Amino acid sequence: MEQTEAISALGQYVGAMGLTASAFYVGINILMTMSLAFLVTNMRERTGIMTGDGGNEDLKKAIRAHGNNIEYVPLVLVAIITMDMLGMADVWVHAIGSAFVFSRALHAIGIYETLDRSPLRFVGAVGTYAVLLASGLIILLQAYI
Q: pTM (2 decimals)?
């Protein structure tokens, strides 16, 4: 099977399973994570620091923005996919998914501003925690009620 046929078959499978809403957020989060990874790589190339942060504040910010994103994306994507697999209305998936993407973007921008406290970082963190709490509760309610 050619690569394009395989991709098409996967797309049909995802569509048939009703997972297109969660697939959207998987794609968006992959692109966001790759963007943050690219910023780290680019900063490493510019500074010549290939391991750790070398005490460079900008590289430290890039590493933390990427690392913090990696810490939360997998769990929330599992939640979003689970919501889709439970047959929940797309509005729930989009509410959780869009709130998460928005929160992660604010958090990353906040870290790039400063490693100390910042309003954007705070709002992004609170939004991320709210998404985790809400998605956990929504999934439990859907699964057992």
A: 0.83
